[in-house]
Amino acid sequence: MKPIYIDFLNRLDVEELAMTDAEILSAIETSLATQGRGEAVIEPRVHLEPRVADGHFNVLRGALKEPIDSAGVKVVGDFVDNYKLGLPSELATLLLLDPRTGIPRAFLDASGITDMRTGAVTAIGAKYLARKNSKVLGHIGARGTAYWNVRLLDHLFDFDEIRVHSRRPESRDAFAERLSRDLGKRVVATEDWRSCVEGADIVVEASRLSAPEPMLRTEWIAKGAFVVPYGTMSAIELSLTDIMDKLVVDDWGQCKGGKFGSLRAHVEAGKLSETTLHAELGQIVAGLKPGRESPEETNLLWHRGLSLSDIALGHAMLEKARALKIGQRLRYA
Question: What PANTHER family has UniProt attached to this entry (predicted)?
C-alpha cells in the first residue's frame, strides 16, 4: 500500500490563517446552498453524556458533494463549568475523510471552526430573513460563538447600536470591550435581558442555562424583528412562535428530535412541525423557497448546528493553509 498522509491544523495554525469575515461567510453560504439543492448527506447529531461533569459531547456527521467533495465527523464538548478551569466551554475536533475510499484527509482543531460557522449561519440567516435596514442588535450570551455572531452580523449590517448581556457582569463587560475594540464602535453591556433585546431589529439568544427557563419574553419582540434562539436549554416562552410569520431551521431532521435545543418544547407541543415550518435555511439560500418578503414580517431561525458547515469551513481552511504552507503533514499509513 502506498503511503497515506493526513493534514493537521492545530489551534495556532487556525489562528495564523486569519480567515476573513468574507471567506467564512462565503464557505458557509455555499454549503447551505449545496444542502438546499439536496447535494449533501446530513445525519442528526447524537450526544454522548459521560455523566462525570455538567456537560456532554455532540457528534455531528455529514458529507458534501463537489466542489468540496468531503465527508466529515466533528466531536464537540459542551461543558458549562469549564470557565472555572480557565477553559472554553466548547472544545472540538474535526476529521475530514474521502467519501469514496474512507481515507482520512485532515484532522483540525475545530473549536474556532465551531464558533465561526455558528456565527456565519446566524449572519446568513439574517441576510435572508431580517430587514435589510436592521440597525439595532440585541445579543444574549457571551460564549465563544457569541463573538462571531456579533462580528459577522455587524459585517453585513453595520449596526448603529449593539447591546449584549450575559449572566456574569465580568463576562458581559469583557465581551462588550472586546467587541468595541475589534468592531471600532460602541457596544453596550446591559444589566438585564429586557434592556438588551426589547425593540431590537435582530435578537440572538445564545444563553447558557442549566435547565429550561423562559427568560426571553415574547412581548419584548418588536414586529418585523428577526429572532435567533439557539441555546442548548430553552430560554424562550412557548408563545414566541405564535407571533412569527416564518419559522426556519437549519435541518428539520435534527431539529425534530433529541432532548436539547431552544425550541424542543415547541416541537413537542406541535407549535413547530412540518406543517408550521416555512423552510430549511438552505432551501432559502438556494432560491427554492422565499426568505423575507415584507418589512412587517417577524421571522425566526433555529439552528442546531450543521456538520456540513464544519466540513465546508474546514475545507476552506485547508485550501488556504496549503496555499500559505501552514500546518503539518502526518504519516497515517
Answer: KETIMINE REDUCTASE MU-CRYSTALLIN (PTHR13812:SF19)
